[in-house]
Amino acid sequence: QVQLVESGGGLVQAGDSLTLSCAVSGGTSITSAMGWFRQAPGKEREFVATVIWPGTITYYSASVNGRFTISRPGARNTVDLKMTRLKPEDTAVYYCAARYYSGNNDPRTESAYAYWGQGTRVTVSS
Description:
By secondary structure, the protein is mostly beta strands. The chain is built from no helices and 11 strands. It has strands at residues 3-7, 10-13, 18-25, 33-39, 46-52, 57-60, 68-71, 78-83, 92-99, 115-116, 120-125.
C-alpha cells in the first residue's frame, strides 16, 4: 500500500524559512510527479508546486513563485519544498501528492494525483 508521509511543518515568523519533506513508501516504481498543495482555514485546497521526474521540470503557483523551491533529493521517491520569505498568508495545511503514471491530467491539478499525505501544518505569525 502506497503511503505518503510529510514532515517539517511548524510555527514560524513572517520572513522565516521552512523546509517540508515528503517520502513515499510502499511503491515499487519511481513516481512520475510529486507535488505540494495547501489548504488555508476556510478555503479550498490549492496548488503550490510540483516537480516532474527526474526533477528538471517544475511548476509553481503565482503566489509562491520566487519564494518556494521544490526539489527531488537523491533519495528515491522523496520531495522537498523549501519555503523562504514566509508570509502570514502562507499559513495552511500542506499536502504532499504523488502519481506514478503521467496520464493527461495537468500536474498542477488535484486530479492528476492518486496518492496523498495526511498533511503538515504551517503557521506563519506576523
